[in-house]
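Deliverable D5.2: sample structural annotation.
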Amino acid sequence: MDCEFTEKVSLLLDAELEPGEALRVKEHIVVCPACQQAQSDFLRLRREIKAYDFQPRPFAQAGMLARILNSEKLPLWRRSVSMPVPLMTLLLAIIVGLGVWSLALRRASRLAQSKGATEKAKPVKVLPSQAEVVEGSGSDFSRYDHGERAAIYKVRRTGLAATVPADSRQ
């Protein structure tokens, strides 16, 4: 195939030549045995390609099918996010740091509130209750009341036997 029209024979079979040039190539094919051979080779190759039964491999077919089905745009909550490990580590450290900072601020505000409450409370002079005076016991918790919480009073009762005269017991 050393003829200069060999490429033009392929273009003629593909219908890519202008009508005037196509007529000139057809006339040349009639007289040139190399171009006749090229034309028959091109036609045979075209028939073989059309007759070839192409079956993709199962794993390749499954991959192509998955790619076609996944070509739809997924909603934001169904998308996967990928990021480099150092960036993920940095984000995690920032989140943990913010959590620790938030807890420290909360604790500091609670301490400030408790200091403010104790400073605002006026010292109260506590008088001993009657139970302490009578019995001398330290069971009165009213001295711990600074107006912050409900006071709890505990008074020891004396038994009825001690208050009731002996002759009325019978």
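Annotation notes: Residues 130-136 have pLDDT under 50 and may be disordered. Residues 85-120 form the longest helix (36 residues).
The annotation will be released with the project's public dataset once the embargo ends.
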